Amino acid sequence: MTELLALDLKAAAMHAISLDGTAVRTLVDGLDQMPDGIVVDQLRGHIYWTNMGRPDPGAQLGTEPEFFTRNGSIERVDLDGRNRVTIVPVGAFTTGKQLAADFEAGRLYWCDREGMAVLTCDLDGGDLRPLVVTGADPRITRNWCVGICLDPDRRLVYWTQKGAAKGGDGRIFRAPIDLPPGATPDNRPDIELLWQDLPEPIDLELHGPHLIWTDRGAPPEGNTLYEATVQPEIGAPQIISRGYREAIGVTGYDRHFYVSELGGSIRLVDLGTGTDTELVRLHSPLTGIALADL
């Protein structure tokens, strides 16, 4: 049965949710390291997720926590929630954000926000290395990498750099997965800037020639779901859904898209029928989501 998997920050849990929103169960609890990105390997029967790590102490009341301490990690469980293991240990990178995978090639890809990098490793956590390094000063928020997706057929990786909160300085890039000869992750001549001056882009998904992404920036352009063509040409971004409370994760199939938000809800955007409905409200901040056959 296909269900939605959603990472819940307040409950420190991974929930499995029926596609009609009527049934919610906790698949994994004790996720106390601020989980953020999630992918599902149906072939091998595994679920992977990134952790931001514990936030830095001393955040002011009413402000977002900071994650400059190097304590990110990646974990894995079986589809039934058992056999939980850490495959990339705490401290191997800084802040784990959204996660993608090429399961045929046996590799994970994710964004390290305060680490200002796009990283990759084997499915067992080995051969961890950067593909892109966007800066050296983690306080410069326009260098923060957040959302990621792959085009394995064309060997391309797409990622967002969100910029300051509600800052209107977000950007989306793409580059070949394979570094060109002589290039280094912090000096790549093959990086392509697709769009800039976006409100605050977060998570990405590629569906055929269409790139779909969430944006948690200021309305009316922010707290939205966007779509744009990336093949054969780069098209202008179009808003396909509005009115989110801090839109974060996106997953989907065909023309159905599920969007999670820090406001605690998951919405279903059906471009085929033109409907846009709240599927479930959990009253707890939600980050990454994924579809899984459980």
What does it look like?
- The termini are close together.
- The model has no long low-confidence stretch (mean pLDDT 96).
- This protein has no helices and 24 strands.
- With 294 residues, it is mostly beta strands.
Mean pLDDT: 96
Relative strand content: over 45%
- Low-confidence runs: none
End-to-end Cα distance, whole Å, is: 6 Å
Spatial strand arrangement across the major sheet: 3-2-1-24
Instruction: Give the tally of β-strands.
Output: 24
Q: Rg to the nearest angstrom?
A: 17 Å
Quick structural gist:
This protein has 294 residues and is an all-beta fold. It has strands at residues 2-8, 13-18, 24-28, 35-41, 46-51, 72-78, 85-93, 96-102, 107-112, 117-122, 129-133, 145-151, 156-161, 170-176, 192-198, 201-207, 210-215, 224-229, 238-242, 247-253, 256-261, 265-270, 275-281, 286-293.
Defining traits:
mainly beta, four-stranded antiparallel β-sheet, 0% helix, globular
Give the secondary structure arrangement, pairings included.
Layout (H helix, E strand, L loop, with lengths): L1 E7 L4 E6 L5 E5 L6 E7 L4 E6 L20 E7 L6 E9 L2 E7 L4 E6 L4 E6 L6 E5 L11 E7 L4 E6 L8 E7 L15 E7 L2 E7 L2 E6 L8 E6 L8 E5 L4 E7 L2 E6 L3 E6 L4 E7 L4 E8 L1
Antiparallel strand pairs: 1-2, 1-24, 2-3, 4-5, 5-6, 6-7, 8-9, 9-10, 10-11, 12-13, 13-14, 14-15, 16-17, 17-18, 18-19, 20-21, 21-22, 22-23
